[in-house]
Amino acid sequence: MVHPFFGGTEDDEMWLYMCASNDGPQDPRMKPPAEDLARLGCERVLIFVAERDYLCPAGKNYYEELKKSGWKGRVELVEHLDEKHVFYLRNPTCTDALELTNKFISFIKQNNGSPRNSIESKY
């Protein structure tokens, strides 16, 4: 997940259009219950957030909820300090964008048999 957006905010026009009847940020379509997260069908999740992105708290919350859910996989959160939402698209050759790309490639190439634990990184 690179700068994930979970929607559900009061001013999110797309969310309100698609789901006129909803429970806001607590709607299970935007915030799955722990028992659903615990059944996530993969072994690893990598989440990137940017410190100055207004969506950063949503990505961090998802990370924390996934860790607490009882899911048996490995989750990693990478936060890029002093960066905004999708900075890697605006400046794809900056140091943080190259680091994000390399981290993403490394994640994809990882052996699925690696130890299961939680890791947090900040750049």
From TrEMBL:
Protein's UniProt name: Carboxylesterase 2
Species, as recorded: Citrus sinensis (Sweet orange)
